[in-house]
Task: structure prediction
Amino acid sequence: MAEQVLARGMTRLMDDVLQAGGAVEEGMCNEQCLLQSKLDSLVPYTSRLLGFFQKSQAGDSVDGLMSPSKAGYRWRGHTESHTLTLGLDNYPWALVPSTGELHIGLYSWVAYMTCLNAKLSSTAGDAELESHLEMLEKIHWNTQENMYCDVMMGICKDYDELKDENEGLEHVFVCHCRYISLFPMLLGLVLPDSKKLGHILSMIEVPEELWAEFGIWSLSKRDEFYGQGKNYWWGSILININYLILSSLHCNYMGVEGLYQEQAWSIYTRLCNNLIANVFEQYQSSRFFWEQYNSEGSAGQHTYPFTGWTTLIVLLMAEKH
Result:
């Protein structure tokens, strides 16, 4: 009798557990459906933003290289010394601004937005994203320099704010080893098994190129413009881009088995330690966080106290990406 009572009790208990488990599973399913529904509701807005960039910053297409639907992108407002629309405003660009320019940094952002838009939507396909990634390689990868570069195309139009002296050029690369050259990797657009990733990682860790013992330079020391002009993005070390480099290594490449996994781990470990050590050392000596750090002596410079992007160092210490 006792065994029968125990058995009936266990049966009721199991029924309760199964019912509770079913309720939990159903609840999780409902939550997932609700979350996807909310994400789907965002897609019209993210698509509108993406469309704005694709339309307003579209590059001029050239017969034989790309069709109008697969054109590259050009930051508007580019002058001989600044491109304020980019944010990294006084980087070296083509010496003569032209409507025939195609900018790798802008293309990377548009491709990244396309990727996010596809992930948000439960119905969006990958065709547009694949097209962007294909054209990224076709337009901007320079096989001689083994880096992503801006491009000058043979387009001439009369815009008052621009000079157009490049008629007849077909596809001329404008290459400077700099933060913008890393954007496709930095935004996770380069596949973990791509040889291009190997070239980019090597470019990062080569001394006198971008690698310093206290962070990644914004412009290669070998570049003719290194340390020139206002020297904001022409060599100085900025924590925001260094953080994005480390975040991409951590999220996109360190955990993927392949030829470059060990190299990604090595760069991540050394760069993270170098950045933390230098920011802490400069804080100890000056009691401030700085807007950027000198490319030669590692000291803080420009605005201080600067609790903007430099405090990303705290996230690096916690390995939060």
Remarks:
- The CA atoms of residues 247 and 319 lie 9 Å apart.
- The chain has a mean pLDDT of 80.
